């Protein structure tokens, strides 16, 4: 069973193309995390929030990642990271075309 990790946090920027340039190396490093399948990167300029929706192979991998990522973000001065892990209902997700692989 795959597990979804939902992460969000307040951030003053950068956003858009500047965010892509600033965080490309970080994004590349996520591909090397144990149990990682994919991530959708999120941002909201109006509310000054960023984060992502991740898919991991196991609950343990998702929990280990959010712990590490929260500590890494603290190194950038970002606190108040919200991370939630959810089991995926694969049958319902297939009906709604959810990318669960």
UniProtKB/TrEMBL annotation:
The keyword Electron transport does not apply. SUPFAM superfamilies: Dimeric alpha+beta barrel. The keyword RNA-binding does not apply. Signal peptide: none annotated. GO terms for molecular function: monooxygenase activity. Keywords: Monooxygenase, Oxidoreductase. It holds the Pfam family ydhR. It comes from the Bacteria. This is Monooxygenase. It comes from Lysinibacillus antri. The lineage of its organism: Bacteria, Bacillati, Bacillota, Bacilli, Bacillales.
């Amino acid at each position: 069973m795959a597990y979804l990790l939902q992460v969000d946090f307040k951030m003053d920027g950068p956003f858009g193309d500047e965010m892509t340039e600033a965080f490309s190396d970080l994004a590349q490093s996520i591909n090397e995390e144990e149990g990682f399948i994919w991530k959708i990167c999120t941002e909201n300029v109006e509310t000054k929030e960023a984060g992502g929706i991740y898919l991991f192979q196991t609950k343990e991998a998702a929990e280990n990642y959010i712990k590490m990522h929260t500590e890494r973000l603290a190194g950038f001065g970002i606190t108040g990271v919200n991370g939630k892990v959810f089991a995926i209902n694969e049958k319902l997700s297939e009906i709604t075309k959810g990318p669960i692989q």
